[in-house]
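ASSEMBLY PREDICTION REQUEST
Request ID: AP-0331
Submitted by: J.K., bench scientist
Number of chains: three
Total residues: 622
Priority: normal
Notes: Please return the full assembly, not individual chains.
Input sequences:
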Amino acid sequence: MPSSKEKNRTKREQALNQEYQAIAKRQQKDHKIPVLRNLLVAFIVGGLICVVGQAISNLFIGLGFKPEEAGNPTVATLILVAAVLTGLGVYDVLGQFAGAGSAVPVTGFANAVVSAALEFKREGLILGVGAKMFALAGPVIVYGTVTAFVVGLVKALLL
Amino acid sequence: MGNYLTAFLVGGAICAIAQLIYDLTPLTMAHVLTLFVIVGGIISGLGLYKPLVDFAGAGATVPITSFGHQLVQGALKELEMSGPIGVLTGIFDLTSAGITSAIIFGFFVAVIFNPKG
Amino acid sequence: MANKKLGAQTLQFNRPPVLLEAATVVGPLEGQGPLGDTFDVIYPDQLNGQKSWEACERGMMKDAVKLLLDKAKLSVDRVDFMLAGDLLNQLISGNFAARDLAIPFLGIYGACSTMVEGLGLAAMLVDGDYADYVVAATSSHYGTSERQYRFPTEYGAQRPPYSQTTVTGSGAGLVTDSTYHPGRYPRVTHFTVGKVMDRGIKDPYDMGSAMAPAAADTLQRHFVDTDRTPADYDLILTGDLASVGKKIVIELMALAGYDMGQNYDDCGCRIYNPDKQPVFAGGSGCGCSAVVTYGSILHQMREGKLKRILVAGTGALLSPTTYQQGESIPCIAHAVAIEMSEKGAL
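STATUS: Completed
Returned structure:
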């Protein structure tokens, strides 16, 4: 049980921390995150990537795929392009520029997988590439799956 | 199936919302993307993602929210066909294109290229 | 009997050990920066022909130490001890460089304050009559620290404008007994050991804000212990606070009654040109303070442009694990005072 002396010290520490963080925030003014700029760029780049996806999808439909079937090859194509751009060292530049505009489309998922595979290649194909490929993208798969299970369970119980 | 304008607007909007959350909270992009997959799944479970796909086409199928949608739809389809066990077995039915191509292309790119730093 | 201790945290050396020689090896981005022509060796890329970032970094440290000994015309077997550290888990750059150089080795960790910690400890070994020649070396590398602390280097993460860029660079200094070098040399007169400070900053992109309290605390401690003021120095340098941290320190010191507006700068602000290079708020990393101090600052001291300086290295003592477990970032700062003088003239 913390003594009252310790509790007072903690309170003082917290007060000092708050005071300091106010100073730090103020001095960070010149290097603040440009929220509006980021918002606009994410919107435009994200929108454009989806337009490209739409074009690819229309291409596949033109090649004979049914509209509901065109989604899969479209995703695969986008992933291939993003994978190559990651390998060429280009996707991280796009990422810095566009933020969520490049991370949210499925191309961002590909970048997360490929960049990890690339980086950990030095630790070998098994323990590096194989084991760490999903270091960044794993959460999306895990929680997508858990969500699907929970939603499915809820539906099953309601029916 | 949507057209270029709706794809641009909806896809852009989804990314813009993610960017706002990323910039205004201490969450990392991995957190935000995970949140979006979950939200996409829930919207799909409510039957509202399909109409979005019809309206925006790639604007709804390209963002990571669509992954949540496909996972949920996979579970629900199999639930319909084989009963409750389908909720476990059908999850990856519709989405394998994304995961398999990420693994395969990721592997080959990693073997061929090197990180530039 | 702590005869050589001043106040609470400062050591004063009776025969201020000489910083006899130094060597710096950097990467291409640093070579293209404003201090480009003050470095000894500039690598053409982040690998320099090696198979991994890690191999490149320890190669840099090895090259820096070998070049140092070449410049000092000292053979490896005459070096009594080597103190070295870096940012990587288990200090692999230091360990492997020490293995190849075969110098009796003490690994140290101060994060980005390692250069000053090493220099201070080296001075203690020499002034304490435990050694004649001690090498203090440190290194950092953009690729190695990105992949350990943050993300794979090709990952498209978006950094905020207040974040910093890890310097790819290694600096090594040779400290020796004052008795052997009576001429005009830079001598380490004081070493102020810092305390770990934590003001609750949790954002690992916000290193400047995290480290500034430690810098301010150690600097104040130094002035109180030595009965000096900022005006007693020609230049006061912090290690890698960069643009944001530097401003915070000026304000914190002003609140404590010290005017740091005239002669204070930061190595992270000097090493890059933020207008022309994609470096956000400035440089960071062990190599930052090392290559700036052992390069341009040492040159200026020898040219007579700086007589007495105070270098406060700052380190953020977090790990990827503590960050993921929701902890804040504790930091430390150590300071050394270096003065150009002839033996006995202090």
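REVIEWER COMMENTS: Chain A has a mean pLDDT of 94.
SIGN-OFF: pending second reviewer
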